[in-house]
Structure formats: C-alpha cells, structure tokens
C-alpha cells in the first residue's frame, strides 16, 4: 500500500478539470480541508476520498438532485479519516470517528448545526446499506460515491469519459481492491467489536481466520431475559 504523499493540495487540485460542470470546491474552507486530508491520509485514501466526491457529485448531476457541493466534499473527504493512524486506540466504529472529525472541522468554521448534522449522517451511514439513499442528497451521494469506487455499483451508469477523467486525475492504481481492503483491516483490527452488525465484519473475517463474528440471534437467546 502506498505511503508517500506525492503532491500538495494545490497541486492535486490543478490536475483535475471539471467534468460536465462537476469540479472540486475551492472555497477557503474546502482548500483547508484538502490540505488537512492530504497531510493526514496516504495517497490511497486521499485519492479514494476525492474520487468518492467526484462520483457522488456526478451521480447527483445525473439524478438531478439538489445538493450542496461543499457539504458533499466535506463528507467524502472525511469519510475514511477514522482509519488513519491517529485512531489506532479508538474503540468507536471508524465511521463515527470520521463523522466526529468532520463535525469538529465544520463547527470551527461556524457552519450551521443542521448542515453539520447532515455531514455527520453522510459519513456515519456510508457502510450501512439501504438507509442513505432515503436521506438528504448529501447523505445519499457520499454512499453512492463510496459504492461506485469500492464496489463498482452503478459502474455502467457512468460514461467511459467520466470514469477515465476521475481516475486519471486521482488514480486507483493496479492493486486498489487489495490495498483498500488492507486499509480497512488496519483501521479496524484493534476494535473488532465495533464491526458488529455492519459490512465491516466481513473485512475482519477475510483477513483473520480466528475472528469470531457476534451472532445477533445468539445474543437474543442468551440474554438475561427469562422468555
């Protein structure tokens, strides 16, 4: 998995040309966010997070959704920060650590709490299938971006030009599938209990043959209740 950081935030932004009106936000807050994530995440997660924004924004455009590009950008760029080294002792779900970090960042800029809550939901729910698409557009679109980049969901609903423009600017590399699974595992292996009831326990089971999944039915049947 790549560790080096090849470019500054301004350099990586210059690589990308707007696709059909979709561009990287360039407000002061967005620029500072780009630099923060660039300084915190390796190339793998930084490029992935940027692609999540772009695929999410393109999805919003295709579906004619009204969304705030800056809020979507914050949600996308923060969504995996909980996997990084600074959270190696946390026992929260990594999505919650990521959402909390985004919340603190937005509050430092005086963003209204209702918008902060939207971004928090967008990040916290991005590994919970079946819920985000029924919530606000920014929430739905962060998950849509993640699903496209990681799982290939809706792959054929993007044109070749769109996919190539995104990947050429923010490369996946030849081993992204393997590398992103490794990043998930490294960010969660110290907090296995946090993966209960989510897709994340599949990651631990994939890498660790000794991992024991919690069983929902067993928890019910062995609870302290008599009947």
Would you summarize the structure shown here?
This protein is mainly alpha-helical. Helix content is 56%, strand content 0%. Helix 3 (43-62) packs across helix 7, helix 3 runs antiparallel to helix 8 (160-169) and helix 4 crosses helix 6.
Low-confidence stretches: none
Overall strand count: 0
> How would you sum up the global shape?
globular
- Share of residues in helices: 55-70%
How far apart, in Å, are the first and last alpha carbons? 50 Å
Let me know the average pLDDT.
93
Order of helices and strands: HHHHHHHHHHH
Major sheet characteristics: none
* Helix-strand makeup class: mainly alpha
- How many H/I helical runs? 11
Share of residues in strands: under 5%
Rg, nearest Å: 18 Å
Write the layout of secondary structure elements.
Blueprint: H1 9-14, H2 28-40, H3 43-62, H4 69-78, H5 94-108, H6 113-124, H7 137-151, H8 160-169, H9 176-188, H10 200-207, H11 216-221
Helix pairs in contact: 2-4, 3-4, 3-7, 3-8, 4-6, 4-7, 5-6, 6-7, 9-10
């Amino acid at each position: 998995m790549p560790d080096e950081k090849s470019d500054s935030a301004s350099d990586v932004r210059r690589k990308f040309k707007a696709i059909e009106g979709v561009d990287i936000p360039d407000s002061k807050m967005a620029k500072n966010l780009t630099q923060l994530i660039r300084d915190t995440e390796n190339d793998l997660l930084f490029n992935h997070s940027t692609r999540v924004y772009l695929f999410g924004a393109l999805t919003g455009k295709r579906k004619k959704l009204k969304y705030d590009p800056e809020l979507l950008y914050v949600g996308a760029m923060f969504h995996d920060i909980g996997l990084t080294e600074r959270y190696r002792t946390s026992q929260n779900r990594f999505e919650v650590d990521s959402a909390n970090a985004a919340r603190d960042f937005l509050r430092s800029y005086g963003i209204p709490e209702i918008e902060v809550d939207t971004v928090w939901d967008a990040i916290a729910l991005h590994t919970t299938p079946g819920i985000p698409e029924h919530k606000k557009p920014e929430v739905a679109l962060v998950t849509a971006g993640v699903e496209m980049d990681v799982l290939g969901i809706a792959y054929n609903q993007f044109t070749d030009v769109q996919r190539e423009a995104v990947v050429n600017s923010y490369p996946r590399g030849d081993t992204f599938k393997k590398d992103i699974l490794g990043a998930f595992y490294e960010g969660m292996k110290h907090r296995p209990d946090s993966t209960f009831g989510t897709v994340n326990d599949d990651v631990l089971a994939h890498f660790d043959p000794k991992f024991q999944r919690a069983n929902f039915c067993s928890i019910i049947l062995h609870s302290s209740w008599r009947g």
